Amino acid sequence: MSESLTLASDANIAKNATLPLPTVAQRFNSGMDLEDPKNNSFWLWKWIFNWTSSSPIMLRTVEKKILSYLKLPYRGFFVDIGPAVGEADKIWTISMNTESKEVPLVLLHGLGAGIALWVMNLDSFAKGRPVYAMDILGFGRSSRPLFAKDALVCEKQFVKSVEEWRREMNINDMILLGHSMGGFIASSYALSHPERVKHLVLADPWGFPEKPTDPNNTKQIPLWVRAIARVLTPLNPLWALRAAGPFGQWVVQKTRPDIMRKFQTTIEEDINLLPQYIHQCNAQHPSGESAFHTMMQSFGWAKHPMINRIKDVRSDIPITFIYGSRSWIDSSSGEKIKSQRGSNMVDIKIVTGAGHHVYADKPDVFNRYVNETCDMYKVQDGKLITPLQLIRESTESDEEREPSLSTAKGVEIQPEIEPVSTSEDVAATTATSDDDLATNVKSK
Question: Which stretches make up the AB hydrolase-1 domain (predicted)?
Fold first, then answer.
């Protein structure tokens, strides 16, 4: 019985065409815009690769189909960051509106995600500034090296990969936005490279609070549930998806129908693209996922919580938290950090009715909050003019405010003297372009 999969369209593939699954040989000889997993033809790895029904080709194709719903043009390419963690690491990147001289916005996704999940946000962000979204090292289409087994070392490896990416892209400074695990990495990056971060935007960030020590919190959980959790603790969080093999997409559809609903209004023609994309992102070698497992202390907490360190972020770097009101992430960490940093800017926004995937649950509200933050930084005559930073006296909900940006007490941030560079000249020599993406513009 032959297997088939509905793949994405491009200039040479009819829309919604059904194509046969690529052979193993095709998966490793698929063009310059694909990261070679370098399996050295080991038969067991080939068998596993076939069992999971995953390949760089299929991931590339389904990603392109999702991004075809963008209205603005984008460019996709690999950025060669050298031996950041592995021998020769590459980070898959898309860029938009790079001609703009405004401070660029850089996006870091969460666990098990990839670039395409920003599809409802990218157009809005890129209208007024350069935007870069990357597949974090170990995820999506980026390289999947072997990370360290020490939590802090592993965290620093993620930070190093982001910094090497920035150098290759010749980005002088940026507004850094991270969701969930990406927020944890973004925070660690701001601690290590404060001179490169103009503003830190943390969307429902993972890894901030300390794990509760109250034994009453665990006594309410049935014994059999705790026993299963203990047995599964050594396993990577998404192991079941890979264990399901070719049924991985079905597992995503059945266990997370909410993910499909979030994107239904945007990807209305084929909502199954989302579980297909998530399956392809996570059915391959779980390099980044294993690194997350190394950094975590049970799924909900980090071994080295950011709450104990974020107060040391340089005092002139504002932080904006965007929480979903229905998220499992505890927003009280934001309040604690606001009190820790004293008069330094910490802005907390609560998106009513949104869960952990706040960027997808209420994309219009989320996009407005991010754009208002980015609009505080403007470039005139090649120089960054930083206006008065806004501090609100209390946590703000999207239901408690008017669309216009309110004013309150301010803390003046000193403007930078040197011009902001968002040039892709370096990237053009170090990154391999996915040439058929450059003019990929489609109106809904």
Answer: 104-363
Whole-structure pTM value: 0.75
Which of residues 344 and 45 earns the better pLDDT score? 344
Sorted by where each starts, the structural domains of the chain and their CATH numbers stand as 68-238+286-437 (3.40.50.1820)
Going from the C-alpha of 288 to that of each of 148, 238, 295, 319, 439, the distances in angstroms are 11, 11, 11, 26, 31
Q: Which residue has the higher pLDDT, 157 or 300?
A: 157
- DSSP 8-state secondary structure symbol assigned to residue 34: S
Residue 2 sits at φ, ψ, to 5 deg, of -80, 140
Note the pLDDT tens digit of each residue in 264-321.
888 877 878 888 898 888 888 889 999 999 999 877 889 999 999 998 999 899 999 9
CA–CA distance, 335 with 376 (Å, rounded to integer): 22
DSSP string, 215-243: THHHHTS-HHHHHHHHHHTTS-TTHHHHH
Q: How far is CA 253 from CA 68, 284, 303, in A?
A: 22, 18, 31
* CB-based contact 139:288 (threshold 8 Å): yes
Burial (Cβ within 10 Å: 0-12, 13-18, ≥19) of residue 4: exposed
Q: How many residues comprise the chain? A: 444
State the angle between helix axes of 181-192 and 151-169 in degrees (0 to 180), rounded to the nearest 10: 70
Q: What angle do CA 84, 160, 104 make, to 5 degrees?
A: 115
